[in-house]
Amino acid sequence: MHGMIGWDVVLGLVILAFAIPFIFLSSRMKQVRLRALAVQQESKYLRMMLRELENHVRHDQSLFLESLGVPFLLMRPSGRVEMANEKAAELVGVESIIQANLLRMLPESELKTFLQQACNSTVPVRADVAVELQGVPRLYRATATPLETRERHVGIVFLDVTEEHRTQVIRRDFVANASHELRTPLTLIIGYLDALIDEPEVAEDAAIRQRSLGIMKHHADRMSRLIADMLTLSRVDSPGSGYLKHEEFNLCRVAEDVILRLKPMADEQKATVNMEIAPQPFVMWGDSFYWAQVIFNLLENALKNNPSPGLVVSLRATTDEAGARTITVEDNGVGISPEALPYIFNRFYRADTTGKIKGTGLGLAIVRHAVEAHGGSICASSTPGERTVFTIHLPKQSVE
Ligand code: ADP
Questions:
Q1: pLDDT, tens only, 61-115
Q2: N or C: which end of the chain has fewer CB atoms below 10 A?
């Protein structure tokens, strides 16, 4: 048996032959597994970082979009929204706006037509688009810019131009109305002047001449009143123009002055004008000239629209505990019809169609603008034949 390798050695060698690679492999595998674990952890970490970065970008993007302050949309040519801010969602009336296809979702409207044009165009598109926002009509100036991205995105910005448009319309109407109102008396004056110049029999007849001069004076006075009212209105209608003084005054003094100026008219009509102002002195801040105009126009309106005897006009002013003021002018005259009531503060609006009552139609427009320029508001209510009340609300003034 000597010289022969024993079975146990052979077995040992065989086991060794298998075990060595196994040990080697298993240690390798362990290394690989550890490496894989490390890679897994690293990738988890990277994924987390990526998510965090994405959140950052999204947050910054939304901060940027919201801070724009105007509705903004980024769309694909298909109509699908890629980016939008809250204001844009509100404007188009779609809550979950991201990824929504506006060209498919929106009903036929000016907005949809514009978006269609914007998505189909390779050049910038601009238009004024009328939109109803929470039931209120508004006008937006929309500008769409095609972007040079692979997806051919289009960026759209909307600017609210409702106020600008409203002012433009008011200005246009004002010029048209003012020209019309001025042209009427001027045409009459020119007519009478022509007659006096071209027709000797008119100029020579003292009675006709006198009557013509009287009519010309009447119309010239009307033009002068119109121009004075237009100037007052344009001054009080220019906020921040420096026309409005800011000083302390006693409303009682102002009202007494106005009532004194209107006394001859009130006496002639056998009307009574009462004043109940408390506390005394009734101290206010602002421009007393315009408050005098407000009180004058309201009291004069009550008187001139009710020439029959027995009219009672009451001017009242009170202050509540919070310092807010209420000023009312009430009369028991003919009143204002419900059809006319919504328009009486409009420029050049006159409810009287008889032409017998003097006026420019600018009196209440001046009143409203003067009150609003002082931070207040005015409204009117009327039960024809019973009573008409103009009520001014003035919040506590910040300077007090
Ligand atoms: P006007 O210069 O014609 O007086 P206003 O703007 O002051 O113009 O008033 C508009 C219209 O409102 C008047 O034409 C008048 O018909 C009506 N109105 C104003 N105040 C009264 C009132 N107290 N009673 C009846 N009608 C009034």
A1: 888 888 889 999 999 999 999 999 999 999 999 889 999 999 999 999 999 999 9
A2: N
Which of 165-174, 214-223, 298-307 is the least confident region?
165-174
Task: Collect all residues with Cβ–Cβ distance below 8 Å to 312 and sequence separation of at least 6.
Answer: 271, 272, 274, 331, 332
Task: Specify the pLDDT at position 1.
Answer: 47
Strands 272-277 and 283-286: unpaired
Ligand 1, closest atom to CA 352? 16
* Strand-strand pairing, 72-75 and 81-84: antiparallel
Distance between CA 377 and CA 223 in Å, rounded?
29
Q: Please indicate, yes or no, if residue 20 is contained in any of the structural domains.
A: no
Written as six digits, the tokens of 248 are 């302390």
Of 96, 174, 90, the C-alpha closest to 132 is 90
Q: What is the spatial distance between Cα 7 and Cα 3, in angstroms, rounded to a whole number?
A: 13
One domain, residues 298 and 156 = no
**Kindly report the CA angle at 392 between 388 and 395, in degrees rounded to 5?**
160
User: Does the beta carbon of 360 sit less than 6 angstroms from any atom of ligand 1?
Assistant: yes
Q: What's the token pair of residue 176?
A: 């048209």
Sign of CA dihedral 193, 198, 203, 205: negative
User: Does ligand 1 lie within 6 Å of residue 363's CB atom?
Assistant: yes
- Its domain, for residue 344, covers 247-400
Same domain, 252 and 399: yes
Does 198 reside within a domain?
A: no
Our mutation pick for probing the ligand 1 site, out of 226, 262, 297, 301, counting the most ligand atoms within 8 A of Cβ, is 301
Cβ contact 390:329 at 8 Å: yes
Residue 337 has what pLDDT?
A: 94
Domain assignment present for residue 107? The answer is yes
pTM metric for this prediction? 0.69
Q: Is the dihedral of CA 330, 335, 338, 343 positive or negative?
A: negative
| Backbone dihedral angles phi then psi of residue 306, each to the nearest 5 degrees | -135, 70
| Residue of the CA atom closest to atom 19 of ligand 1 | 301
Which is nearest to 60 in space by CA: 93, 83, 27?
A: 83
In a domain, 86, yes or no: yes
